[in-house]
Amino acid sequence: METPINLYQNTQSHLNKYSSIVFDSYPPQMGICNGELISQISNPDSPLDIEEFRRQGHMIIDFLADYYQNIEKYPVRSQVDPGYLKSRLADSAPYHPESIETILNDVEKDILPGITHWQSPTHFALFPCSMSIPGFLGEVLSTGFGTVGFNWMSSPAATELENVVMDWFGKMLNLPSSFLFSGGGGGVLQGTTCEAMVATLTAARDQMLRKIGKANIGKLVVYASDQTHFSVQKAAQISGINSNNFRVIQTTKSTNFGLSSDSLHSAINADIDAGLVPLFLCATVGTTVATAVDPLRSICGLAKQHEIWVHVDAAYAGSACICPEFQHFLDGIDGANSFSLNAHKWFFTTLDCCCLWVQDPNALIKALSTKPDYLKNQATDSNRVVDYKDWQIALSRRFRALKLWLVLRSYGIVNLQKFIRNHVKMAKHFEGLIAKNNNFEVVIPRNFSVVCFRLSPFALTGNQKIMSSEEDLNEINRKLLESINSSGRVYMTHGMIGGVYTIRFAVGASLTDYRHVELAWKTIQEHADTLLNDLCV
Ligand code: PLP
């Protein structure tokens, strides 16, 4: 199988070649020619001594390459007990310096045991946090440049590259042009979806309050489903929404746990009758537990009638929509005000990298901009540039666009689609294995690369083991999952779907291959057999 990670090969010669390209291409009048300046500023007492930087940098890359080479040897879920680290480390920071060799030794000895190995090929927990060579190296490059590109002037390339990659990515997803800079909208890289949610909810709040008056903030209502990620609730708390006005609309199996527009309609009407003001709806494409999809076209249509801001949260599943066969999940997105996905989940771009698009950047800017005198500059005054500090909560910001750019260019759309399809195929394969075994059942049809399953009622009653209520079954599945995770071979997590304790098998780690899916299936069956045998005794 082709994977996004190729283990380390000859880092030394590669980097030497790269550095000579960079420095040789500088104009000689800048004095950075053929490494001359480097030798001038090399200073062992400096926090940025160049030769030490090179030496230690190579060492860390080697360390990580070895880590990936050996990653299957570690228990996927960390097996340490709370507080394990304090007793291993000194009480206070060292007064005298220690060498990188000593420190890396301690990373291996003390830190690695406390790491849950998200990049392990048998990490099937939560959602993936998919790593790749360009994602990692882009991160290194951006950290290496150490820019703080809060406005255009503070690093023009950081802003302009972000403008470009957000339009590229938007086109790949087939978003309406109104979400792109080229069509009057625009995109911004936030750290996480939680931040994107606060930014958009604040924009929606202020837009509405400009219309109905600030005194009416207590009347604003936010809507979500019982499957929506808690980030919208957190955003509502932060942005001053009355906690009684956060509506959680129940979903059912009949809609595969997607939000029903009829239920939403009833909730909106009840609020209007009560004199409240519907404000914001978070719809999800790929909910956190069940990966359910809310029907965007109908709920956006409804929201539009009431001037409700719709944010579409596709934190995990949005990435799949670069494949035409998944784009139907975004049908109706033109009716949404904002849309976000986490490239650090399933787009081979390291944490953190949440991509947020809005149709009306001014709504965001009006809510989030400030204009201190000390940041005044001609570019801002010209109104010809984007100042991203006005699109987010924080001032300072990382050069995240660089890593996304590296990922897009290094793989091209064709390979990114291939990686995603491969994960989906492996999930489908796993789903097939579950479906063939009476002791297990798929709890909800799979949409993407997550399979929701459990030990079935038949596993208990069919074998005349015990009578089972739903609670019994939930408890046994809880035990099964804990037993599997304690083995360290595989890591999966759970969720409650309609009162059913569900084990989630999320494919998406970059190193995962079919043999890891098979290993997981074998491990699951072994632990289930032991558990069921114990029940018989
Ligand atoms: N939305 C959904 C659907 C999620 O599944 C998650 C996390 O898994 C989030 C939002 C939160 O993402 P973040 O950690 O980037 O805030």
From TrEMBL:
GO terms for molecular function: L-tryptophan decarboxylase activity; pyridoxal phosphate binding. Pfam families: Pyridoxal_deC. One of its GO terms (biological process) is carboxylic acid metabolic process. InterPro entries: Aromatic_deC, PyrdxlP-dep_de-COase, PyrdxlP-dep_Trfase, PyrdxlP-dep_Trfase_major, PyrdxlP-dep_Trfase_small. The keyword Transferase does not apply. Keywords: Decarboxylase, Lyase, Pyridoxal phosphate. One of its GO terms (cellular component) is cytoplasm. Its cofactor is pyridoxal 5'-phosphate. The modification N6-(pyridoxal phosphate)lysine is found at K345. It comes from the Eukaryota. Belongs to the group II decarboxylase family. This is Tyrosine decarboxylase. The lineage of its organism: Eukaryota, Viridiplantae, Streptophyta, Embryophyta, Tracheophyta.
